[in-house]
Design a protein that fits this description.
Elements (H helix, E strand, L loop, with lengths): L5 H30 L1 H26 L3 H11 L5 H8 L10 H12 L3 H4 L9 E2 L3 E7 L5 E7 L3 H22 L5 H15 L2 H14 L6 E2 L12 E5 L4 E2 L3 H6 L4 H19 L1 E3 L7 E3 L5 E3 L5 E3 L2 H15 L3 H11 L6 H21 L12 H4 L3 H8 L2 H7 L4 H20 L6 H13 L3 H33 L9 H23 L6 H21 L2
Parallel strand pairs: 4-9
Antiparallel strand pairs: 1-2, 2-3, 3-5, 6-8, 7-10, 8-9
Helix pairs in contact: 1-2, 1-7, 2-4, 3-4, 3-8, 7-8, 11-18, 12-13, 12-19, 13-14, 14-16, 14-17, 21-22
Length: 539
């Protein structure tokens, strides 16, 4: 893998493929103008599929960093047609091995000692090779077996050349076809590749995550041998193990696939929801199991953080949905970066949140966070269906933005759930994830806060009635009144009932007689239970 005039040849090949793709799209757009929209709709998926295969063939021929970029685009991008996503996700990051002489030169130059002085055994053939580096199984003079990951020679120059080619391709495509957000995606992909080229950063991530998981039984993050590692070399403990989806071997070892799958999901719950720093690429090749049932996490080149703000807001949103507080849901989504600050975005987002919250409350069982399956038929005639008629998908996509942290989180969760299912098909990862979410909702007095906030809402509603009545009369006089007929009699009755229960609950809880504290407390608890029952039955 040496940078040379071959880069120009690679660029010409990339440009030729891009030109063919552009011609195919321009042709079908022209045909749409002449032959109509139905012609376009019937053929556009075929054009996407054919062009996706062209890209796949070009990537496999060009090799270098194009494979890695293709994979990362599938991670970062929700803006490409599904045919492209399927092709990019299927790419395997492998590459021809570099000559041993190049590996030897890099090790000796980086560590300033001969390879024989550093290792007692160092084979010439690697056990794996990818676009950025290759891995060897070596042995230290102390007798320990280690995995030695070494970057390919000139990989930084190759990466820079390939990234420039891809940047030029994006600029040329943008002249003919507008793909919203593609420049931002490219910037993120470039940043991720630059991080993967720095093995020192990967070593730091391994040490941090290893420390975070040090008390987790049956989870191993390989030890980093700092004295043998550098920016281009990473030496870690070697483990004899199989991929986590090798179900047959795991069963032959007498291990329980269900327990291993559950342990994998639990450790990701901890990394994501508690630590905020997690291994972001948990495909089966990066998750191994040894004959003792330990799960070994490999390749920390791709790690991600769920920032403190986002981690705090997940339980806030859950609580706000349960309390029917749409304003708090909107505020939380703004803090997480999903909604912009402009008034139009907030207006559309408010309608969207109100519809989604109402749909969840009416169509989804929140008890124990046990969400039932939702079908298309459930949506018909619901608040979401009404919203679809009022707000176009185009407006919604401009309003609701998906932050990078959330995209990486979503992909990691999909991979974890898929990997656990490949090991144990009958295991349902959500049965493990939901208790973690429930714990987030009720921790730090969350349940108490839900009850107190709900009581506050009842009194606020009572106090606001005169003002709302005044607003109602003003709109009626000015002809601005929009009327919707509901079962208001039942709602008024239940509201009065809940108000009485609130008063009784607070009265017995705070204004009890000193000599009858226990009796008053029991009565207060009884009214509290009745209040919660009323809230739940009329949610």
């Amino acid at each position: 893998m040496k940078p040379s005039a071959s880069n120009r040849k690679r660029a010409r090949k990339a440009y030729r493929v891009t030109a063919k793709i552009l011609v195919s799209y321009v042709s079908i757009l022209l045909a749409r103008r002449i032959l109509g929209k139905s012609f376009y709709i019937n053929r556009i998926d075929q054009v996407h599929a054919k062009n996706a295969q062209r890209i796949r063939a070009a990537i496999l021929e060009l090799q270098g960093l194009f494979t890695k970029v293709g994979q990362l685009l599938s991670v970062m991008s929700n803006i490409l047609p599904k045919q492209y996503m399927e092709v990019l996700e299927s790419l395997q990051d492998d590459a021809p091995a570099s000559p041993f002489s190049e590996t030897k030169n890099i090790i000796e130059a980086q560590l300033e000692e001969s390879i024989e002085t550093l290792f007692s055994v160092f084979p010439e053939e690697p056990i794996a090779s990818a676009s950025i580096g290759q891995v060897y199984k070596a042995q230290l003079h102390s007798g320990e077996y280690v995995a030695v990951k070494v970057q390919h020679a000139h990989i930084k120059q190759i990466a820079e050349a390939d990234l420039k080619i891809i940047e030029q391709l994006i600029k040329r495509i943008s002249l003919f076809i507008t793909i919203g957000g593609i420049e931002h995606v490219y910037t993120q992909v470039r940043s991720m590749i630059e991080e993967e080229l720095n093995y020192t950063k990967e070593a730091e991530s391994m040490r941090t995550i290893g420390q975070n998981l040090s008390d987790e039984k049956g989870i191993i993050v390989p030890k980093v041998y700092t004295e043998y590692s550098s920016e281009k070399i990473l030496v870690t403990t070697f483990y004899d193990a199989v991929k986590i989806n090798d179900r047959q071997q795991i069963i032959e070892w007498g291990l329980n696939p269900h327990e291993i799958a559950e342990r994998l999901v639990l450790v990701y719950c901890k990394m994501i929801l508690e630590d905020g720093l997690y291994h972001a690429d948990p495909h089966p090749g990066n998750v191994l199991v040894d004959n003792s049932g330990n799960i070994i996490l490999l390749d920390f080149g791709a790690v991600a953080t769920l920032n403190e703000e986002m981690r705090k807001e997940i339980p806030v949103i859950l609580q706000a949905i349960i309390r029917k507080d749409d304003a708090k849901v909107l505020a939380s989504m703004k803090r997480m970066g999903f909604v912009g600050d402009d008034k139009d975005s907030q207006k559309i987002a408010s309608k969207f949140i109100a519809a989604v919250s109402q749909f969840i409350r009416n169509e989804v069982e929140i008890d124990n966070l046990n969400f039932k399956d939702i079908s298309i038929d459930d949506i018909k005639g619901s608040s979401l269906d009404e919203l679809r008629k009022e707000i176009s998908i185009k407006e919604l996509t401009k309003t609701i933005q998906v932050p990078k942290d959330w995209i990486l989180l979503e992909r990691a969760l999909v991979l974890v759930i898929g990997t656990s299912a490949s090991l144990e098909p009958d295991y349902r990862a959500m049965d493990t994830i939901k208790p973690y979410l429930k714990k987030l909702v009720i921790k730090d007095g969350g349940l108490k806060n839900i009850i107190i906030d709900t009581i506050k809402q009842q009194f606020t509603m009572l106090l606001s009635l005169p003002g709302e009545l005044s607003t109602f009369l003003q709109k009626a006089n000015s002809g601005e009144l929009e009327l919707e007929v509901h079962d208001s009699g039942t709602k008024i009755y239940m509201g009065i009932q809940q108000l009485i229960l609130c008063i009784m609950f607070i009265g017995f809880l705070f204004f009890h007689h000193e000599t009858h504290q226990l009796t008053y407390l029991i009565i207060a608890i009884l009214f509290g239970v009745l209040l919660l029952r009323s809230f739940w039955r009329n949610r």
